[in-house]
Amino acid sequence: MKNFLVKDLMVPLSEYATVPEGSTLLEAVMALEKAQEEFDFEHTQYHHRAILILDSNQRVIGKLSQLGVLRALLPKNDSIRKIEDIGRFGFSTKSINSLRQKYQLEAGIMGDVYKKAGRMKVEDYMQTPSEGEYVEENSPLDTAIHQLVVGTHLSLLVTRDGEIIGILRLSDVFAAVFHAMKDSESDR
Questions:
Q1: Within this chain, do residues 111 and 131 fall inside the same structural domain, yes or no?
Q2: Which helix (H) or strand (E) holds 176?
Q3: For 172-182, how does the pLDDT look when each residue is reduced to its tens digit (9 = 90+)?
Q4: Structural domains of the chain, count
Q5: pLDDT of 181
Q6: pLDDT for 129-153, tens place per residue?
Q7: Are residues 13 and 97 in the same domain?
Q8: What is the DSSP string of 125-163?
Q9: What does the alpha-carbon distance between residue 13 and residue 165 come to, in Å, rounded to a whole number?
Q10: Which residues pair with 53 in a beta bridge?
Q11: How many angstroms separate the CA atoms of 182 and 43, rounded?
Q12: How many CA atoms lie within 13 A of 40 on its CB side?
């Protein structure tokens, strides 16, 4: 397998979906859509799955995944919390989902949530990167793989001299490893 460095597989920050702090969920999703349309898929077939949140100095302060956007859209009131709480008492996922669905149908919740997304701020739902989510651009790919696996991350923020310059996506790392496995098999 070629001895990849992190910088060989990272997506530069300039090519990734970003929004400034204070943006709405709708603006973030629109930025993600635009970045996917403009991304060079010649080298990878995988779409972006997150939006990076920038402060006023253009520094990354958080990440909002597709799952994070969907979580933000879920209603959070006392009735929903009570339904979630009963899961601790051994009720099946099927029972909990049935209760949740019944409540949402009765309350007509989801239609309003989509409208509210235009007012919801990304920083209220973003994930602030942990120490284990940073990797230096000149680190060997093995180091990044270890961090991805141990931290169960879908991506790592790539740094140069302490500044974030890109993102290393699990999908790109997997593709590189997969192709190396195929190449080593054909070399036999």
A1: no
A2: helix 170-186
A3: 899 888 888 88
A4: 2
A5: 85
A6: 998 999 999 999 999 999 999 999 9
A7: no
A8: TPBPPPGGGEEETTSBHHHHHHHHHHHT-SEEEEEETTE
A9: 5
A10: 19, 62
A11: 17
A12: 7
Residues of the domain holding 107: 74-116
Unique residue bearing structure tokens 């920050």: 13
Same domain flag for 126 and 170: yes
Single out the residue of 129, 147, 135 nearest to residue 50, CA to CA.
Answer: 129
Nearest to 11 by CA among 41, 56, 54, 55: 41
Domain co-membership, 78 together with 65 = no
Can you state the percent helix, strand and coil of the chain, rounding each to 5? Answer: 50, 20, 30
Cβ count within 10 A of residue 18: 18
pLDDT at 1 over 50: no
For residue 40 the two structure tokens come to: 């060079």
pTM beyond 0.85: the answer is no
